[in-house]
Every structure is written in C-alpha cells, then in structure tokens.
C-alpha cells in the first residue's frame, strides 16, 4: 500500500468515525456491569481519571502514528521505526493489536447478537406486561440456547464484515452522521425518565459518592482496562483509522471531543440502568446480563414501551456495529498490508472470528464449566483479559513509540497542535501516562 489510501470526507467525518468506534457495548453494556462489580462511584472516578491521564494522550499517540505512516498498523510502525533508525521489530506491535481485537471481536459479536435478539423480541412486544422476574428468567433461558446465540452471532458478524469489505471510510460515514445524535437523544430521554423512578436517588449516590475502602489493585486495573476499552485505544484500531485522517485537523481537539462524548454516553446509560436496578431491588453486581434485564423492565412500565425499547435496541445495535467495524479493520488492514486482497482478508478474518466466537456462545450452556485458565470459562476470559491486560500493554508500547522513538518532527506535524500543544502532550505522555500505565499493570498483575 502506498500513500494513496482513501480519506475520510471531512473533519467531522473523522470525529464521528472515532466516536463510532468508541461508543458501543463498552459504554452501554460493559460500563454498568463492570462498575456494578467494582463498587460504583470509586470505579467511575478512577476510570474517568484514567481517560483524562492515559486514554486521551495515548489515543493521540495511536492516531498520530497511523496518520504519519498512512498505512496499515504493522506497515506504518515498520516504516516509521526504520525512519527513526529504530528496530523494525516495532511492527510486531501491529500484530499484537490485531490479536487483541481478534479476541475482543469474538465475544463482542456474540453480545451484539443479543441486541439483535432483543430488538426482534421488543418489536414483537414480548416484554409487554412482563414482570421483572419473567424478564430475568427469559434472559437466562435465552443464554442457555446456544443455537440462538450462534445464529445472532453469525448475523452480526456478517453485517460487520460486509461493511469492512466495502472499505470503511465510505461505508461508515453516512451511518455515523445519523446514528450518534439519535442514540444520544434517546439515552437522554431514558435518563430523564430515570429521574421519575424510585431508584433514582440511590443510583445517583451509588454512582457519584465514592467510598474508597473497597478499592483494590484489581479494581484499579479494571478501571484502567475499561478506559482503554471504551475509547477503543491500545489495539492499533484507531491507528488504522488515523491513516485515513484528513491532512488539516487538530488531533487533540478531536480526541477531547470523542472522550467527552464517550464518557457522557456511559453516564447517561449508567443513570438509566442503575435507577432501574435500585427501583427493582436488583443487585448491581449482576454481571453481563445487567443491561439486558434492566432496560426491558424499565421500558415495560412506560407508555409505548415496546416502541421505545425497539428504538433503543436498534440504536444500540448500530452503535455496536460501528465499533465492531473498527475492531475488524486493523486485522484486515494488516493482512492487506501483507499483500492480501481486501476481500480475501475480510473473509479470512470473518471465518476465524466466527469460529472462536462459538466458544463464547457456548460459554453460557455446554461450555459453562470449561474453565481453561484462572478458573474462568472462555467468555469470561476473552471479555476480561484482552480489555484489562492486552489493551493497556498495547497502549503502553504505542505511547513509548510515539513519545520516545518516532522522530519528533514527524510527531509535531501529525499531532497538528502547535508547539505548546505538542509540549503539553509530550510531557503528559512521557511522565504521566507511560509510568502510570506501567505501574497499574504491574500492580494488577501481581
Ligand atoms: N470502544 C468499543 C466499545 O466501547 C470497543 C472497542 C475496543 C472498539 C477496542 C475498538 C477497539 O464498545
């Protein structure tokens, strides 16, 4: 591949594309249940601090590498490393990123499939008049049916890979333009509705009044992993998008805009979901089913409930779709850079993700007790280790590469933030982001 890659049509299109990658299951499904398992407000506070101190600077590092290299991640890293007189082995970082997104996409596609099922169920009015207990039991029964999970996983992956095959810049632009404002608006409505529920007060204090007694090294590690996951940083996925970035665009502004949007989506979702959790006397640490059980309960009590629930699942599905496309892109871009045709690369990625995804789909029934590592089954492994460990590791190396290895003149031009912006970024990433990521990773692993 040469320097004649496709480009996003405008600055706005780039910001929307990165927001599309960032906003997804991470905000609406993963944030509430991980926060629920890790104590609520203290987790939220630490995660937001990590977004500011690590997420944003590393996001800039990652995108600027792609922008300076204008190639698939592996090739961009290789070329920039040679240019700097550093080892070409840096390119393996691109492969590590591809491996990380591979693991993530394998469970992401399965969970996104749940949204398809729930979309269909809400269009059919299946939640009408159902009690909270019935909705909970229905979800359990659904998870115990691997055939249904596999069908939806296959459908979702097919939807994703079709867009990837067409080339993301063109395929995504139109979708993102419409989707983000709609999703945001609906979440806002939900949060407003939440103020009328009896659980609202408890939800607010649970989310915003931190108590630090229960904060362990593990909670801090989860918060850091989630900051990387929700921003889509650390797997060279945004690096692949940076390669299509327009020439004139300030990177810090784009990164801040995305982070603010991303956090606010998570907060709106958190307020809506935890209000229902507390109004219904449910347990916040209920795990991956949290959103799928609470929201149908909330909507079933609203006028036009089925309609709004259908709209919600449709928007969620579209949001996860744009994230999944970003997850697939670095793998396809990497294979393409190795000389594969885009269509062949897409097919190979689709098939292998589908196969590994089956293990996650079966993790709720047949393979529930198959626990190959750390006493966790496959779904539990792929939904925790790659986000909590691989993304921060990848992010750390990306940061080191941009802050210490790349020729700084290249960094300055790709960052497009002026002299002061550059110095601020460099100081933060060198003396805060890199050491902090390292310490938290080490502390969490030990
Ligand atoms: N940020 C996405 C989400 O929150 C997930 C993702 C992670 C996408 C890593 C790309 C890379 O759903």
Automatic annotation (TrEMBL):
<feature type="transmembrane region" description="Helical">
    <location>
        <begin position="12"/>
        <end position="29"/>
    </location>
</feature>
<dbReference type="GO" id="GO:0016020">
    <property type="term" value="C:membrane"/>
</dbReference>
<dbReference type="InterPro" id="IPR037272">
    <property type="entry name" value="SNS_sf"/>
</dbReference>
<feature type="transmembrane region" description="Helical">
    <location>
        <begin position="389"/>
        <end position="407"/>
    </location>
</feature>
<feature type="transmembrane region" description="Helical">
    <location>
        <begin position="256"/>
        <end position="282"/>
    </location>
</feature>
<keyword id="KW-0812">Transmembrane</keyword>
<feature type="transmembrane region" description="Helical">
    <location>
        <begin position="302"/>
        <end position="324"/>
    </location>
</feature>
<dbReference type="Pfam" id="PF00209">
    <property type="entry name" value="SNF"/>
</dbReference>
<feature type="transmembrane region" description="Helical">
    <location>
        <begin position="149"/>
        <end position="169"/>
    </location>
</feature>
<comment type="similarity">
    <text>Belongs to the sodium:neurotransmitter symporter (SNF) (TC 2.A.22) family.</text>
</comment>
<protein>
    <recommendedName>
        <fullName>Transporter</fullName>
    </recommendedName>
</protein>
<dbReference type="InterPro" id="IPR000175">
    <property type="entry name" value="Na/ntran_symport"/>
</dbReference>
<feature type="transmembrane region" description="Helical">
    <location>
        <begin position="181"/>
        <end position="208"/>
    </location>
</feature>
<keyword id="KW-1133">Transmembrane helix</keyword>
<feature type="transmembrane region" description="Helical">
    <location>
        <begin position="345"/>
        <end position="369"/>
    </location>
</feature>
<dbReference type="InterPro" id="IPR047218">
    <property type="entry name" value="YocR/YhdH-like"/>
</dbReference>
<feature type="transmembrane region" description="Helical">
    <location>
        <begin position="220"/>
        <end position="244"/>
    </location>
</feature>
<feature type="transmembrane region" description="Helical">
    <location>
        <begin position="41"/>
        <end position="65"/>
    </location>
</feature>
<feature type="transmembrane region" description="Helical">
    <location>
        <begin position="428"/>
        <end position="445"/>
    </location>
</feature>
<keyword id="KW-0813">Transport</keyword>
<feature type="transmembrane region" description="Helical">
    <location>
        <begin position="92"/>
        <end position="111"/>
    </location>
</feature>
<dbReference type="GO" id="GO:0015293">
    <property type="term" value="F:symporter activity"/>
</dbReference>
<keyword id="KW-0769">Symport</keyword>
<keyword id="KW-0472">Membrane</keyword>
């Amino acid at each position: 591949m040469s320097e004649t890659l496709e480009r996003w049509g405008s600055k706005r299109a780039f910001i929307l594309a990165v927001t599309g990658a960032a906003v997804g299951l991470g905000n609406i499904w993963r944030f509430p249940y991980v926060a629920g398992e890790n104590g609520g407000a203290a987790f939220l506070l630490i995660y937001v601090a990590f977004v500011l101190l690590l997420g944003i600077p590393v996001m800039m590092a990652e995108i600027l590498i792609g922008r300076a290299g204008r190639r698939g991640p592996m090739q961009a890293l290789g070329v920039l490393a040679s240019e700097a007189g550093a080892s070409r082995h840096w390119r393996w970082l691109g492969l590590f990123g591809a491996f990380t997104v591979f693991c993530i996409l394998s469970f992401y596609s399965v969970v996104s499939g749940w949204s398809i099922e729930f979309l269909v169920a809400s269009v059919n009015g299946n939640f009408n008049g159902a009690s909270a207990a019935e909705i909970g039991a229905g979800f359990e029964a659904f998870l115990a049916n691997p055939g249904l999970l596999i069908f939806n996983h296959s459908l979702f992956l097919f939807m994703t890979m079709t867009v990837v095959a067409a080339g993301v810049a063109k395929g995504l632009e139109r979708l993102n333009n419409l989707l983000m404002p709609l999703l945001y608006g609906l979440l806002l409505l939900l949060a407003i509705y939440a103020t009328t529920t009896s659980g609202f007060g408890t939800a607010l204090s649970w989310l915003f009044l931190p108590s630090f007694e229960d904060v362990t090294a593990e909670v801090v590690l989860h918060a850091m992993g989630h900051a990387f996951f929700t921003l889509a940083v650390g797997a060279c996925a945004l690096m692949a998008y940076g390669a299509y970035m327009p020439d004139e665009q300030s990177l810090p502004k784009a990164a801040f805009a995305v982070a603010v949007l991303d956090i606010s989506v998570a907060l709106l979702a958190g307020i809506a979901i935890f209000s229902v959790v507390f109004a219904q006397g449910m347990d916040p640490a209920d795990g991956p089913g949290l959103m799928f059980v609470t929201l149908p309960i909330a909507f079933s009590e609203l006028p036009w409930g089925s309609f709004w629930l259908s709209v919600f699942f449709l928007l969620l599905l579209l949001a996860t779709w744009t994230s999944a496309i970003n997850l697939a892109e670095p793998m396809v871009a990497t294979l393409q850079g190795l000389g594969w045709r885009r269509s062949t690369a897409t097919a190979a990625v689709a098939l292998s993700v589908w196969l590994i995804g089956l293990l996650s789909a079966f993790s709720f029934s047949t393979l529930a007790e198959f626990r190959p590592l750390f006493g966790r089954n496959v779904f539990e492994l792929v939904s925790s280790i790659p986000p909590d460990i691989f993304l921060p590791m990848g992010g750390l190396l990306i940061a080191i590469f941009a802050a210490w290895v790349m020729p700084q003149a290249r960094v300055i031009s790709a960052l497009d933030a002026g002299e002061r912006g550059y110095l601020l970024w460099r100081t933060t990433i060198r003396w805060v982001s890199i050491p902090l990521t390292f310490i938290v990773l080490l502390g969490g692993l030990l």
